[in-house]
Amino acid sequence: MQAIFERRSIRKYTDKPVPKDLIEQIVRAGMAAPSAGNEQPWHFIVIEDKMILDNITKVHPYSQMLKEVNHAIVVCGDLALQKYEGFWVQDCSAATQNMLIMARDLGLGSVWVGIYPLEDRVRAIKELLHLPESVIPLCILPIGYPGEEKGPVDRFNPSRLHWNQW
Prior knowledge:
alpha+beta; NADH Oxidase; 4-stranded antiparallel β-sheet; about 35% helix
């Protein structure tokens, strides 16, 4: 559980390749997330093609770290799998958080690079990855060995904790 408190947004990476089995462990952690009505509306696209990674940086201004990694995972929600409209965002967000924590636990780094709900980013990534109409990209997770070290930060703020009512 220490990985929860040690997880940090990593934006610099070494060139050391990440073994495929670690990538699969990260995705497995994503698929273990809770979802509304157990709908599991997610799809995960693992990108290892450097040309695709570079092309993403041309359409997403905050994705430049993709030039440094050998893998990224695009977390997508499939509207065709919804049982409860709109909950795909929460479900895929829970999956994303699980993957960020698993990456940290495995000694890897990652950062949540948001796509949805910005329509220009959604459209560009859908076109680039040839996503079906019903599939919406939520975010991108670069995966790599950290090229920077960030210590834990205690973000507990008692002024944001309320008991029983505001």
